Amino acid sequence: YEGGKVREVYDETGSLLYSYEYDSEGHTSRIRLVKARSDFEAELAGMRSEIEQEKFDALYTLAWQDEAARLRIKEEVARGLAAIASGISQLESQRYQDVKECKSGCMGIGKRCKTRRIEVPGVQVAINNLRRERSKLLHTEQEELAKIPGEVAKKKKEVEDQVADQRGKLETEAAKFRRNLLRQETEPILAD
């Protein structure tokens, strides 16, 4: 109390709830809902922090998913390339065959043998097919890796849009609450 007028009101824990100001004629000129404003601002700061944490978490997860997707593609391609290389290696070892040809000598006397190395039909075609598969696989890898930045950008925009929406809703609600507080603080003055 000051001059017979209430200046401040505290709760049982000692927290300031209200403060009153008076004009020179003793009329209430201002009432401040101190605790309500303080609690509101603290809660608002906490909610803003939660929104930012959710954004950070979503973008962190997105970055992790980006790296995981790249790694998965590279691992799958490496397995495919290893299988193709193994197939080519096996076929290369089968590509040529030694054939022994023997001819009888004149009048059936004596035998002359000669070994020739010949290419096995179809093996080179199979090797070429595997090389084409390797080329296709490498091309597919590049295409898949090229898609990732676009997908990441799309998801990042979704996160940013959601955060902007949450912030907008929070600020709209905060403005409504502040107007309500202001109304509560001015009603007693208008009635006085």
Strand content: 15-25%
Number of strands: 5
Strand order of the largest sheet: 1-2-3
**Rg result:** 42 Å
Shape: rod-shaped
Counting DSSP H or I runs of 4 or more residues, the number of helices is 2
Helix content: 55-70%
Question: Element order, helices and strands?
Answer: EEEHEEH
Low-confidence parts lasting 5 or more residues at pLDDT below 50?
none
Write a structural description:
Strands 1-2-3 form a three-stranded antiparallel beta sheet. Strands 4-5 form a two-stranded antiparallel ribbon. The chain is of the alpha+beta class and 192 residues long. The longest helix is centred in the C-terminal third of the chain and has 69 residues, at 123-191. Helix content is 68%, strand content 17%.
Which descriptors would you attach to this protein?
three-stranded antiparallel beta sheet, two-stranded antiparallel sheet, 2 helices, 68% helix
Quick summary of this structure?
The protein is an alpha+beta fold and about 190 residues long. Helix content is about 70%, strand content about 15%. A 3-stranded antiparallel sheet has the order 1-2-3. The chain has a two-stranded antiparallel sheet with strand order 4-5.
How is the secondary structure organized here?
Blueprint: E1 8-10, E2 16-22, E3 28-32, H1 34-94, E4 96-104, E5 111-119, H2 123-191
Antiparallel strand pairs: 1-2, 2-3, 4-5
